[in-house]
Specification:
The chain has about 240 residues and is of the alpha/beta class. The chain contains 10 helices and 5 strands.
Length: about 240
């Protein structure tokens, strides 16, 4: 096909990412949360582009104003999470695991006061977090009787996380969230634009997918970018194998 690099892969440069209307809206809210700072929950079906949107946010934020900290753990323990947070903050993990949470809270406050850079915590894959851990994260939000926050916080998870938020055990956490946004799949015309955009960014100079093929691709993928990537790659491999 004459591509300069492989299309439909996770390693797509941030500058070449396709942004649907929903992704633009999500990114605008994320920037607002980072700048103020506030707390936000970003949800959506697996593969819809939540982590990609976080990557775009990190790329756009001015490093002189923001200290972006990304945590992407699956089902961590409470201690494991706070040790990972300290590692991301480049702070030595204490000998006593029970001190990790308190130390993380102190470091975030110190960073804000001494550097005047807003820490932006991007916590991904929270749908698997225990209630105990989510409550511990909520505890990070409590500073000086809620008169201010020294950091921005974004909790990102699949639909399971959104379904858990109304639970009585998580009401306190849900009440602290200033913004909630739910990402959805691409609309039919956006799927067409997405595929064409992906191909243009790798050097395609001619039509690769017919309109009926793109329509079918949308129907099967439900407009979920991860599914589109997988199916489009399989189609390209099949076409290359048959020289069609």
């Amino acid at each position: 096909f004459g591509f300069r690099r492989t299309p439909f892969v996770r390693e797509t440069p941030v500058e070449a990412l396709y942004r649907s209307r929903a992704h633009k809206e999500a990114l605008a809210r994320l920037r607002y949360v980072a700048e103020n700072p506030l707390f936000m929950a970003l949800g959506g079906e697996s593969g819809v582009g939540k982590s990609t949107t976080l990557r775009a946010l990190k790329h756009e934020l001015d490093a002189a104003r923001f200290d972006v900290i990304y945590i992407g753990l699956t089902n961590p323990s409470t201690v494991g999470f706070f040790e990972a947070l300290l590692a991301a903050l480049h702070v030595e993990i204490p000998y006593r695991p029970s001190c990790a949470r308190r130390l993380a809270s102190e470091v975030l406050l110190e960073r804000f006061r001494s550097q005047q850079r807003i820490p932006v915590l991007l916590i991904d894959e929270v749908q698997g977090f225990s209630i105990q851990l989510l409550e511990a994260i909520r505890g990070l939000m409590n500073y000086d009787c809620d008169s201010f926050s020294p950091f921005s916080l974004v909790l990102t998870g699949s639909d399971e996380f959104r379904q858990r938020l109304p639970m009585r055990a998580l009401q306190a956490l849900a009440g602290r969230l200033h913004i909630r946004f739910h990402l959805t799949g691409l609309r039919p015309e956006e799927t067409v634009h997405y595929v064409e955009h992906q191909l243009r960014t790798v050097g395609a100079e001619r039509e690769v997918f017919t309109r009926p093929a793109l329509q079918r691709l949308h129907e099967v993928s439900a407009g979920i970018p991860r599914h589109i990537n997988h199916l489009a790659t399989l189609a390209l491999m099949a076409a290359a194998g048959t020289d069609t």
